[in-house]
Amino acid sequence: MPLNVVMLGPPGAGKGTQAERLARRHGVPRISTGDMLRDAVRAGTELGRRAEAVMTRGELVSDELIIEIVRERLDQEDARGGFVLDGFPRTVAQAEALDALTGARGPLIVVEIDVPEAELVRRLQGRRVCSRCGANAPVGGSSASCPRCGGPLVRRSDDTEDAIRERLRVYARDTKPLVDFYRARRTFVAINGAQPPDQVAREVADAVAARLAPATFDTAGKATS
Ligand code: AP5
């Protein structure tokens, strides 16, 4: 059965950190809409030009634009055997579009990573990312350069106090309702993300393995037996 996973959670919950580990473990691509948009900004493309100011304010780019980007990405060969989505869907309209795009590919496992707001703010205010390749600096690291490419570590442009506040507000308003959208499915699981990254990774891996275990699902991930 292909591994089709969505990582859901507020800014700073560790979606990217855990999506990368899970994707590597299963040999499928991690598809981060935030990274795709930041790459476009760095490359100065038309998409990047349209997304940059919206992202810096902590708002969402339009459903129409992001759904088209994800549709094209999921059509690529490497995503045929599965994927880990990080940062998509973020609205009910995006979740409905994802069901339509992936319905025939088997059940969608949805992992919500839950972290208290004070810890999210602490993480985002302290985060450093590589200005060259975009990678997060390791948790608790003290180096001034990127362990992956040696580039300089900087603050992400949307990790300012105002943008963090706006991202949390937008999450509560537009994305948190997805928990109710997915909760009734047997393939939904909530994980406590306020634990060390290795422990979160173990719980994510176990939850995903349990949901990949043989059972009969309809295409939306609802158990039928
Ligand atoms: P996106 O890049 O998706 O940002 P986000 O959702 O705000 O999430 P983050 O990347 O800030 O956090 P994360 O949960 O991935 O945590 P991470 O692993 O990095 O989106 C950015 C913007 O793009 C959006 O605001 C929007 O404008 C636009 N966009 C993207 N997708 C869109 C969509 N679908 N629709 C519309 N617009 C869209 O970890 C955070 C920090 O905590 C790191 O420093 C990390 O090292 C640390 N950390 C991780 N885990 C732990 C742990 N267990 N303990 C301690 N520290 C930890």
Give a quick summary of the entry.
47% of the residues lie in helices and 13% in strands. With 225 residues, it is α/β, with parallel strands linked by helices.
Could you walk me through the main structural features you see in this protein, from its secondary elements to its overall organization?
The protein has 225 residues and is of the alpha/beta class. It has 9 helices and 7 strands, in the order βαβαααβαβαββααβα. The protein has helices spanning 15-26, 33-43, 46-57, 63-74, 92-102, 117-126, 161-175, 177-183, 197-212, and strands at residues 3-8, 30-32, 82-86, 109-114, 129-130, 153-154, 188-192. A 5-stranded parallel beta sheet has the order 2-3-1-4-7, sandwiched between helices. Helix 2 (33-43) crosses helix 3 (46-57) and helix 6 crosses helix 7 (161-175). The model has no long low-confidence stretch (mean pLDDT 92). The protein binds BIS(adenosine)-5'-pentaphosphate. Residues 9, 11-17, 33-34, 37, 54-55, 58-61, 66, 87-88, 90, 94, 123, 127, 136, 139, 158, 167, 193, 196-197, 200 line the site of BIS(adenosine)-5'-pentaphosphate.
Question: What's the structural blueprint in terms of helices and strands?
Answer:
Elements: E1 3-8, H1 15-26, E2 30-32, H2 33-43, H3 46-57, H4 63-74, E3 82-86, H5 92-102, E4 109-114, H6 117-126, E5 129-130, E6 153-154, H7 161-175, H8 177-183, E7 188-192, H9 197-212
Parallel strand pairs: 1-3, 1-4, 2-3, 4-7
Antiparallel strand pairs: 5-6
Helix pairs in contact: 1-9, 2-3, 4-5, 6-7
BIS(adenosine)-5'-pentaphosphate (AP5) binds next to helix 1, helix 2, helix 3 and helix 9.
